């Protein structure tokens, strides 16, 4: 390899995974939903810095790829919340391991490594 460019095919699906999960907010949304279903307003409150229009776009994108679903309970009152699909739940171990890796290598104790 010439070091200039990484061949997408050589990376297999890893390229696609990081293109999706590495997009700003997506990982945090999925990580938050690992704790259970949440309403839009709860996600907005829990995820620091995200704004409504961006949250809406990211939820739609995650739903489109089958990781998140929008669930409506007809009321009264009508309740709308978001939850992980089976595919989204499949990320649980990976997200947990990434969090542990970040704690070890990016957190305050990482300076001692």
TrEMBL record:
Entry annotated with the keyword Transcription: yes
Key word Protein biosynthesis present: no
Pfam families noted in UniProt: HxlR
Keywords: DNA-binding, Transcription, Transcription regulation
InterPro entries reported in the protein's UniProt record: ArsR-like_HTH (IPR011991), HTH_ArsR_DNA-bd_dom (IPR001845), HTH_HxlR (IPR002577), WH-like_DNA-bd_sf (IPR036388), WH_DNA-bd_sf (IPR036390)
Domain spans labelled HTH hxlR-type: 11-110
UniProt-recorded name of the protein: Winged helix-turn-helix transcriptional regulator
Organism of origin: Sphaerisporangium dianthi
